[in-house]
Design brief:
single chain; alpha+beta; Alpha-Beta Plaits; four-stranded antiparallel beta sheet
Length: 178
């Protein structure tokens, strides 16, 4: 039995309508995943599964989500060991937990795409690649940065953002189940 983290790119179904985390846990159970639990209300799911590949889990979750909620969302899945490695790889652990963000990608971000982001980095901000995921220390409010609007699927591939507080919270959840 392995433990996994699934990150939904969006939980907004339409104006004024969001996915409730209890419904997300129910979806995981209906798909046969065990012990589903969520962290905060932003689409972070931890669960157990046996003998499944990451791409299969992503496909099952995305199809199940579309059937249940009527909307496609990209879902990125990592196994527990990979998530622990991601959390350990944070190059900006000295930064403020809500201002340090990782873009967790389905496929590694290329160094060329990383270089294309550098002109958008303003003074006080830092960016780094770690195992193909993009870490950003916004050094202030992410919403006030031009860099944030450049972190799109079109530019960087399928992925989703999580702040350092959430990354640590998920790592803690995984360590409590292992």
């Amino acid at each position: 039995m392995s433990t996994f983290v699934a990150l939904l790119h969006s939980i907004v179904l339409g104006p004024g309508r969001r996915v409730v985390m209890a419904d997300l846990r129910d979806l995981a159970e209906d798909l046969g995943y065990r012990k589903p639990r969520t962290l905060v209300s932003t689409g972070n799911l931890v669960f157990e599964a046996e003998g499944a590949r990451l791409d299969e889990i992503e496909r099952q979750l995305e199809e199940g989500f579309r059937r249940r909620f009527g909307k496609h969302v990209d879902i990125v899945v990592r196994d527990g060991a990979n998530w622990a490695a991601l959390a350990s790889a944070n190059p900006f652990k000295d930064g403020e937990g809500s201002q340090v963000i990782v873009r967790v990608n389905r496929a590694p971000i290329s160094p060329e795409r990383m270089e294309a982001l550098k002109p958008l980095v303003k003074e006080g901000q830092r960016i780094a690649l770690a195992s193909g995921d993009l870490w950003i220390d916004f050094g202030g409010r992410p919403s006030e940065s031009r860099l944030l609007s450049a972190l799109t699927t079109k530019r960087l591939g399928v992925g989703t953002l999580r702040n350092w507080n959430t990354v640590r919270g998920l790592a803690k959840m995984l360590s409590e189940t292992d």
